[in-house]
Amino acid sequence: MSAKKKNKPDIAKKYDVPDKSVAKKSAMDEKQEEKEKKEDELAASEAPLIEHLIELRQRLIFSVVAIAVLFVIFFFLADKIYLFLLGPFERAAGSNEAVRLIYTAPQEFFFTKLSVALFSAIFAAFPIVAGQLYAFIAPGLYKNERGAFLPYLIATPILFVIGAAVMFYGVLPLALSFFLSQEVNSAGGVTIEMLPRVSEYLSLIMTLLFAFGICFQLPIILTLLATIELVDSKKLKSWRKYAIVAILFVAAFLTPPDPISQLGLALPMLLLYETSIISVKIVERRRAKKEAAYKASLQ
Asked: pLDDT by residue (tens digit) across 12-67?
């Protein structure tokens, strides 16, 4: 019996018959190697992800610190900034002597100055935040993609400022003139006078600033959509009548319920929509030139 058992591996070797124990062992080794390989790949993929998250955290911290520092600075300048924001009210009233605002709670003007400081800090820190965002995204983009992305990043704050300026120097004085025209001074001595609260006036002007600034981003949004071929100039032309209705609805929703503010936002947006069609046509022409050059290079 023992001789037979002893001769079994020899017979297997002689006739090249694989030993079951050896085959089983090699299969287990392959599985172990495959498992270790997967673990190594997973560890290698986790390392860059952690590095990206650390970098993102650092850039977010830098942006928040920048906003916090500017907030402290602007808080000490909040009175002057608020007086500057009263400019449209002064132009509507005709003189600064006719401008009167009130606050009905002891802490109201203090919190209003906090809001002014925070709003000013976010506005002033936008280039820093945008720069940090671009610095985080840029390494993952190709050279031509970085060149295409940078103009939009620069144009965004410029269009926001243009929209805010249109509101501040054009629309808001007209709207406040309309509101002031509702005052009543009767012969019997009854007076109905507009005395806005400081917080309500700041809320109005901040709402309009953001509304106009964001709506003026329409050309950038449509041009980006055209760049990734989600829209084209023909579609925008065919959607013109629907765009008019949508613009009127947005203007009515974002502005106070007076026709001057609504038209003041709707008319520039209609003009921006037409400008977007021209911008999309330029993108299409550039794409057509690149495609033609590529086809010519293949021939």
From this structure: 444 455 555 545 556 566 666 666 665 555 444 455 778 778 888 888 999 999 99
pLDDT at residue 292 tops 70: yes
pTM of the predicted model as reported, rounded to 2 decimal places: 0.74
Is 212 within 8 Å of 163 (Cβ atoms)?
A: yes
| Long-range contacts formed by 224-229: CB under 8 A, 24+ apart | 224/152, 226/279, 226/280, 226/283, 226/284, 227/148, 227/283
Q: Would you say how long the chain is, in residues?
A: 299
Q: Is residue 127 part of a domain?
A: yes
User: Residue 195 phi/psi, 5° resolution?
Assistant: -125, 85
For residues 230 and 238, give the distance between their C-alpha atoms in angstroms, rounded to a whole number.
15
Instruction: Confirm whether 14 is domain-assigned.
Output: no
Give the pairing type, strands 191-192 and 184-185: antiparallel
Which position has the token pair 């610190």?
A: 65
Domain of 67 in residue numbering reads as 38-153
Residue 184 domain-assigned (yes or no) = no
CA dist 292 → 144, 234, 279, 284 (Å): 18, 21, 20, 12
Burial class (CB in 10 A: 0-12, 13-18, 19+), 77: middle
Q: How many distinct structural domains can be found in the chain?
A: 1
Q: Which amino acid is at 263?
A: L
122 in any annotated domain: yes
